[in-house]
Structure formats: structure tokens, C-alpha cells
Design brief:
The complex is a heterodimer of chains A (322) and B (347). Chain A is mainly alpha-helical and 322 residues long. Chain A has 13 helices and four strands. In chain A, a hairpin with a 5-residue loop joins strand 2 (155-156) and strand 3 (162-163). Chain A is globular and about 55 Å long. Mean pLDDT of chain B is 80; it is low at 332-347. Chain B is 70% helix and 5% strand. Chain B has helices spanning 11-27, 44-67, 75-92, 99-126, 131-149, 160-167, 175-192, 196-205, 207-212, 217-242, 255-265, 277-296, 304-319, 321-329, 334-346; strands at residues 34-37, 40-43, 154-156, 169-170, 173-174, 245-247. Chain B contains 15 helices and six strands. Chain B is globular. The chains are: A mainly alpha (322), B mainly alpha (347).
């Protein structure tokens, strides 16, 4: 018998396989490794951002600033490279540092001044999006040789399919996150704070440091997602990645992580992102369906998963009290 | 005890609004000019009231939801759905100028909004799902529904009676201002002249205790979410009728965030319990004044977001007890400040 705590994760994975199979049965040409690889290529940046969001949600918080942070990263990179003439080797570490310290600062405000994460990261969202427009109101396209090379690079896989550099980065981030979540003190502390912050304090865990690290990690992931997004779009624009925070939160919830914190898996988020990708792919293959069906299906899935979690948590709570 | 004006929860929001108006007075004295023309009043202050009314209406509904320790993220989508529903009905009608048709469309749009509010309420009160998540569903799916109603296009209507809701004038003032005042007075009357307000605060403070005390928290929660959705529906009608069209994609975009901001600036805690409708109104006016000021000063409007970010942070920091304690610890004797906080927290 499978451990009960894995049930939401298994449901997510099962749903992904089911959707992929349904697509394969319905549309010729759907069942190929390249279609699967395209899911990863098109959603690499979302995957990276959602991994950071997983940690924030596991700790019982939320980060609304991720979409704006991605936009700010694209904008900063584009303007530094194209207008200031900086080399990419200096720009990429700089934007990663900006994202990390941005997240770290939000974490510090959340912890030390006890303001709800929702409000602080909302202010962060406004700030990052506004800073994009301070840099420039228009799109800045990038034609630096390094970026075009990264955008066009195809890594051939056995079997004839290929992936992009972004996918490699995203998969590395997932591996790193799995390691962080399950094999380090930082990961255990994050779970503990999400389970009950006051208990974590009483246990003597470094709550302040962990919380700031969680938001810093999310800021880092958003900046890295922004770098990958820059490779993907080859431009910086203040309206890039609008609403990405919702997609990331949806991916985390569909991936089986409890929004109240304390329970969930990074690998679930991976499948949560893939499920959103499959929905989009199916709608593209169908051809007659309009793009807004994506939102409705994701809304429906959110509903189902939240209900499933509700049933699941109610059952464990009852199990505990007996 | 004499009334301590600094202890009033309205002090900080009013001070911020006053400061903003003072900046305008110093930099652009014509900001306060009000002209009387063709029986209508014109001027920046009237514009603030006019353009701020949808936000104020949504924020009033949001205040009650937040007072129950909830939150409603779906109001932006509801604004879009309500406008889309009304415009679709009117555009399908035989005679767009018919008052009956417009009335029917308005009622239908509001009914749909209330039904969606019921859905939110059922998820929160019935299924016991965290409000932020329960309303996230409709926030995501609602945009899709709005686009489904408009078939992804912008529906334009030529109906004059419908245009009146968002752009008409009544007794020298824009009609939408009266709508906002009506919603505010209704909410204030319901919560302060009946025991409903106390029940809402009780649910926000301690749901379990209030249920044991005999408060029917489920029905009150349902009513609160339905009222919030109704407010969003009214705001949606104003927004779409102002431009005589419905845009499923952009109508009411980010209004949920502005509304939550208005509530928080107004001194209502996101942790539930004590709430202030008057504070929310000041908060909504503050946000709209900020936007108008930035336009008036000739600052690129895109920078509004940066200014807004700092205002949010400043207002939240000022309201945060630990921040005030940290500031008080430097210089000012600590004890009186601490005791004043106690008063303000309980008073």
C-alpha cells in the first residue's frame, strides 16, 4: 500500500500521463518525444519560477512578485547589453544577484515587521514592474551573438529529439531543489516553518534566516527564469510574463503542495507545470478551441486539486485525533 | 477619556491623503479648481471621485470579506464578467435604447455576479477551503469565462441608457459617484445599525468561538462573499458602461490588488476582525488621488507602479507594531509609545 502522503503526487503524475495519452489517441503526431520535449522547451522558465514558488508556499507564504521579477530581469539584461554594452558574463551574475537580494529584502520585511507576505510581495510586484518602465517603455530586442546562440542552440538527444539550453538549466534547478528540500537542513526547516511557525520557533530552528532564504531563493529562481525567458524571447519588455505568478501558483497547487504550507514535493510542481503545458498543447492541436479554454481548464483543475487536498487533509486530521 | 486623534484608525490614511493633497496644492494649485459648466461640475477632484468609484465600490465589498479573515481575489474577473454579460445582452437586443433591455441586462449581470459570489462563499464556508485559494479558482477561470462571453473580442454597445451608468450626470455630479455613495452607505448601515457588523467581526476574530456563541457563521460568510461579488458586479457595470464596451481581457485587471490595498491602507487588518469602511473609502480615494496626481505632475504614468509600491510599503510599515516599536526604541522614550499602542490595538 502506498503511503498516504504520496497520494496527491501520484494523482498529479497519473493525470499528466492520462492527458498525454488522451492527446496521443486523439491527434496523430502527438505521441512523440519531441512533443514532450517541446513542453519542456516552452515552459522552462515557468518551471524554474514555480520551483522557487514551491519553497515559498511550503514555508506557508506566497510570492506575487515573480512575474514582475522575470520582466525586470529581461529588461535589465536587454538594456545593459544593448544600450550599455556590457558583456553577458557580467550581466547574468548581476541580474541573478538583483533577483536574489530583491527576494531577500522582501523576506526580511515579511519576517521582521510581520507584514503579510501577500502585501509585501504585492508591493514587490508593483516595484519590479514599475522599474521595468523606468528603464524603458518599449521593447528592447537583443541581438547579441551570445544570446542568439543560446536561443538557437539545440541539444540533440538520442532518438532524434532536441532540447534547448533553458531546459537543461530548468532540469538542473529541479534537481538542486529536490536536493535542497529533502537532503539539507534548509529544506527541513522550510517544511517545519510551513507546518507551524510557532512550533519551529519553539524548537529553536533558525526561522528568521530560513524565511529570508526562502524568499531569496524564490527571487533567485525568478531572475534565473528571467534569464531563460530572455534566451527564449530575445527581448526585454515591461509587459513580459504578466500573470506568470498565477501560473506558477497553479502549477504548485496542481502539483499537490498544500497552500497552507508544510506539505508537498518539488517533483509535483514539475508535473504541475507539465500538465499546464499539455493543456496548451492539446488546445493548439485541436485548432478550433480558443486560448481562453486554457484558463478555464486550469481553473477547473485547481478546483479539483484543492478539493482533493481538502478531503485528504480532513482525513489525516481525523486520523490524528483518533 | 479625551478623544486621542492619533489613536483613531483613520489618522494615518487621512494624514497620507492630506499630505498628497498638500503636494498638489504646492506644485499644482489648479488641481483644486472646480468649474461649473452646463450644469456639471468639472475638475481634478471630481475626476478622482468619478474614476475612483469602481475601486471604492469593490473595496467596500472587499472590506467585509477581509473582516471575516477572508480575501476575494476573483473580483477583477467578476468585473470583467459582469461588464461582458451586460454588453452581450444589450448588443443582442432589438432596440439598444430601450430602458427595459438595459434594466434586464443590468439585473442579469448582477445576478450572474451574485451567483459566482455564492460559488466562492460555498467553497469557503461550505467546503472549508482557505479563501485565498478558493477565490484563486475563479480569478483564473473567470478571465476565461469573460472571454468566452465576449468570444475573445471587445463588444461595443451604443445604448444611451447603459452609457448613463458610468458616464451620466445627476445633480451636477457624475452618476457613478452616487452609486459608490449608495453602496458605501448601505454597507455602513448594515454593519453599524444592525448586529451584522459585530457578527462579521466575531467570525474574523475567532470562527470557532463565534459558532459556539450561536452565530450562524456559514450563512453570514455566504452573504458576505455574495455582497462582495455584487459590489464587483456593480463596478463592472460602471467600468464597461463608461467606455460603452466590454473587454474580457483587460476590464478590472488588477482591481483586486488595488482593492485589497485600499482596505489595508484604510487600517483593516488582513488578519480579520476589526474593520473600517470609512478607512477603506479613504484608502480608495488615496490610491485614485495618487494616480491622478502622477498624471497631473507630468510624471510618466508608468512610474505610478513604483510610487504605489513605496506607498504600500510605507503604509504597511507604519501600521506594523514591530516597526513602530523599532522606531520608538530610537530616541523617543519607549514606554508611552508602547502604552499608546495597547490602547490603539484594543480601542
Amino acid at each position: 500500500m502506498v503511503d498516504r502522503k504520496y497520494i496527491p503526487l501520484l494523482v498529479t503524475i497519473g493525470l499528466f500521463i492520462l492527458m498525454f495519452l488522451a492527446g496521443s489517441l486523439r491527434y496523430p503526431g502527438f505521441l512523440s518525444t519531441q512533443v514532450f520535449m517541446n513542453l519542456l522547451i516552452d515552459n522552462a522558465f515557468l518551471l524554474i519560477v514555480a520551483v522557487g514558488m514551491t519553497f515559498v508556499i511550503l514555508s506557508g507564504g506566497i510570492d506575487l512578485s515573480v512575474g514582475s521579477m522575470v520582466a525586470l530581469t529581461t529588461m535589465l539584461s536587454a538594456s545593459l547589453i544593448m544600450q550599455a554594452g556590457w558583456p553577458p558574463a557580467a550581466v547574468i551574475p548581476l541580474v541573478l544577484a538583483v533577483g536574489t537580494s530583491f527576494g531577500w529584502m522582501m523576506g526580511a520585511i515579511i519576517h521582521y515587521f510581520q507584514i503579510q507576505p501577500f502585501i509585501v510581495t504585492l508591493a514587490g510586484m508593483f516595484l519590479a514592474r514599475g522599474l521595468c518602465y523606468v528603464i524603458s517603455i518599449d521593447t528592447i530586442s537583443i541581438n547579441h551573438p551570445f544570446y542568439t546562440k543560446m536561443a538557437l542552440a539545440k541539444i540533440r538527444l538520442p532518438g532524434g529529439s532536441f532540447i534547448s539550453i533553458g531546459v537543461v538549466i530548468a532540469l538542473l534547478v529541479v534537481l538542486l531543489a529536490v536536493y535542497l528540500a529533502h537532503y539539507t537542513r534548509f529544506g527541513r526547516n522550510t517544511y517545519a516553518i510551513g507546518g507551524s511557525e510557532s512550533s519551529a520557533v519553539l524548537m529553536g530552528l533558525p526561522v528568521a534566516r530560513t524565511k529570508m532564504l526562502v524568499y531569496a531563493f524564490s527571487g533567485f529562481c525568478s531572475a534565473l527564469g528571467g534569464v531563460v525567458f530572455t534566451f527564449y524571447m530575445l527581448s526585454g519588455y515591461g509587459l513580459h510574463a504578466v500573470g506568470l505568478e498565477l501560473d506558477a501558483i497553479a502549477a504548485v497547487v496542481i502539483g499537490g503542495t498544500l497552500l497552507t504550507g508544510g506539505s508537498g514535493y518539488v517533483i509535483g510542481t514539475f508535473f504541475g507545470v507539465l500538465i499546464q503545458g499539455v493543456i496548451q498543447t492539446i488546445i493548439t492541436f485541436e485548432g478550433t478551441l480558443s486560448s481562453w479554454w486554457t484558463k478555464m481548464v486550469i481553473g477547473l483543475l485547481l478546483f479539483l486539486f484543492i478539493l482533493l487536498q481538502r478531503v485528504f487533509t480532513a482525513r489525516t486530521a481525523r486520523g490524528r485525533s483518533v | 477619556m479625551p478623544f486621542r486623534w492619533r489613536n483613531s484608525h483613520l489618522f494615518w490614511p487621512l494624514a497620507a491623503l492630506g499630505g498628497l493633497l498638500l503636494i498638489n496644492l504646492l506644485l499644482k494649485p489648479e488641481f483644486f479648481a472646480i468649474r461649473y459648466q452646463n450644469g456639471h461640475l468639472y475638475g481634478s477632484l471630481i475626476d478622482i471621485l468619478n474614476f475612483g468609484s469602481p475601486l471604492a465600490i469593490v473595496a467596500v465589498g472587499m472590506t467585509l470579506v477581509i473582516a471575516t479573515r477572508g480575501i476575494d481575489l476573483s473580483v477583477g474577473s467578476l468585473v470583467a464578467i459582469s461588464g461582458a454579460m451586460a454588453c452581450l445582452t444589450i448588443s443582442r437586443g432589438a432596440d439598444q435604447q430601450s430602458l427595459h433591455l438595459v434594466l434586464g441586462a443590468v439585473l442579469l449581470a448582477l445576478a450572474v455576479s451574485v451567483a459566482l459570489g455564492l460559488w466562492n462563499g460555498l467553497l469557503v464556508a461550505g467546503a472549508g477551503i482557505q479563501p485565498i485559494i478558493a477565490t484563486l479558482i475563479l480569478m483564473v477561470a473567470g478571465r476565461g469565462i469573460a472571454q468566452l462571453i465576449t468570444s475573445g473580442q471587445i463588444i461595443t454597445v451604443t445604448s444611451k441608457p447603459y452609457h448613463f451608468i458610468g458616464a451620466g450626470w445627476l445633480f451636477t455630479l457624475p452618476f457613478s459617484v452616487y452609486l459608490a455613495a449608495l453602496v458605501f452607505l448601505f454597507a455602513a448601515w448594515m454593519t453599524r445599525r444592525t448586529s451584522l457588523g459585530m457578527f462579521i467581526e466575531a467570525i474574523g476574530c475567532n470562527p470557532a468561538a463565534s459558532r459556539l456563541a450561536g452565530i450562524r457563521s456559514r450563512s453570514i460568510l455566504l452573504a458576505v462573499y455574495m455582497f462582495c461579488a455584487l459590489c464587483a458586479g456593480i463596478a463592472g457595470l460602471i467600468t464597461s458602461s463608461n467606455v460603452s464596451s466590454a473587454d474580457g481581457n483587460n476590464a478590472g485587471l488588477w482591481i483586486e490588488l488595488d482593492a485589497i490595498l485600499a482596505v489595508v491602507i484604510g487600517g483593516t487588518s488582513l488578519a480579520g476582525g476589526r474593520f473600517s469602511l470609512a478607512g477603506t473609502l479613504v484608502g480608495a480615494l488615496l490610491i485614485q488621488t495618487l494616480t491622478t496626481t502622477i498624471y497631473m505632475l507630468g510624471v510618466p504614468p508608468e512610474i505610478t507602479l513604483v510610487v504605489k509600491a513605496f506607498v504600500v510599503l510605507a503604509v504597511c510599515l507604519i501600521q506594523s507594531p514591530s516597526f513602530r516599536r523599532a522606531i520608538a526604541a530610537r530616541g523617543v522614550p519607549r514606554k508611552p509609545v508602547a502604552s499608546r499602542q495597547e490602547v490603539s490595538r484594543h480601542g
